[in-house]
Write a structure and sequence with these properties.
alpha+beta, Peptidyl-prolyl cis-trans isomerase, 14% helix, Cyclophilin-like_dom_sf, Cyclophilin, 8 strands, 3 helices, single chain, eight-stranded antiparallel sheet, Cyclophilin-type_PPIase_CS
């Protein structure tokens, strides 16, 4: 994978928020992935993901977070899927909007590794589950909303991908040990 070419085509904008995952594989700290979220073009989807990175607590409810959740499905040369903060196995989902929420748009394409996209069960069924591409996946265009990209930590994504199998069950537990928002310091 040519990381320099990937970075050259970055569409990073200063006003887009950034989030991070600290990942452990088999209980061993592996590294950090930093994401730029395309809030300028897909604000609802980006906000939903960011709230789960920060820890979302509805009024009088429990705290929902990606922290301690796992990547439950990893298929080499395709994608790494996580975000089931309900059941941990790909069967559960929730959103900050109450239930599932509609697809915002399909402006961004699955044209390279490192793209953050919504996992769903069909049109307009977005929730907490997401995936990160490890290859170009154009057959997903028009079906899954791309809402961010890895801007640092592609080596961590590679290590996650190495734990994958053709059927998707990871060889070892891949856990998000910490997550949150990265606040940019303003230059005043």
């Amino acid at each position: 994978m040519n990381y320099f070419a990937f970075r050259r085509f970055s569409i990073a904008l200063k006003n887009n928020p950034k989030a991070f995952f600290d990942v452990s594989i088999g209980g061993n700290p592996t590294g950090r992935m930093t994401f730029e979220l395309f809030k300028n073009e897909v604000p609802k989807t980006s906000s939903n993901f960011l709230e789960f990175c920060k820890g979302y607590k509805p009024l009088l409810g429990q705290n929902y977070s990606y922290k301690y959740s796992i990547f439950h499905r990893v298929i080499p040369r395709f994608m790494c899927q996580g975000g089931d903060i309900i059941n941990g196995d790909g069967t559960g989902t929730i959103s900050i909007y109450g239930g599932r929420f509609p697809d915002e748009n399909f402006k961004y394409k699955h044209d390279r590794p490192g793209l953050l996209s919504m996992a769903n069960a069909g049109p307009d069924t977005n929730g907490s589950q997401f995936f990160i591409t490890t290859a170009e996946t154009p057959w997903l265009d028009g079906n899954h909303v791309v809402f961010g990209q890895v801007v640092d930590g592609m080596d961590v994504l590679d290590k996650i991908e190495q734990q994958g199998t053709d059927l998707g069950s990871p060889r070892q537990r891949i856990e998000i040990s910490e997550c949150g928002e990265i606040k940019e310091e303003s230059a005043e």
